[in-house]
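A brief tutorial aside. Many learners find it easier to grasp structure tokens once they have seen a single protein encoded end to end. The record that follows does exactly this for Cupin. Read the sequence first, then the structure, and try to relate runs of similar tokens to stretches of the chain.
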Amino acid sequence: MKKLALAAFAIVLTTAAATAQDGIKRTPLQKTDFPDGYTTITGLAEIQPGVSAGRHTHPGIETGYVLEGETVMSIDGEPDRTMKAGDSYTIPAGVPHDAKAVGDKPVKVIGIYIIERGKPLATPVQ
């Protein structure tokens, strides 16, 4: 059952990543149907230097933690933030945002998404 859930999550991530540039590796870690009506998804994103995730939204809150490297986080309505290992962030549901790896090393981020069950993990934004 867990393998099936992770495989389904990998498909969701691959589909969501289709609009992003090469240079991003997404690894599904865990998926749980909780709380009621929502799915909680945990994943690892690795973004190569100079690569951007691409502007997108989520149908629920995203929280994250930078494990390694440095990123510039652009969240609509907020000033851009340069974040490094040890920094964390929260992005409200439906708010367009982007992350770009800066410096000479990849950035690794753990992301946790609490999204409305049955909705896509991410939707691209122009």
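Self-check: Strands lie at 24-32, 38-47, 56-57, 60-68, 70-75, 81-84, 88-91, 97-102, 107-116, 123-124. If you spotted this yourself, you are ready for the next section.
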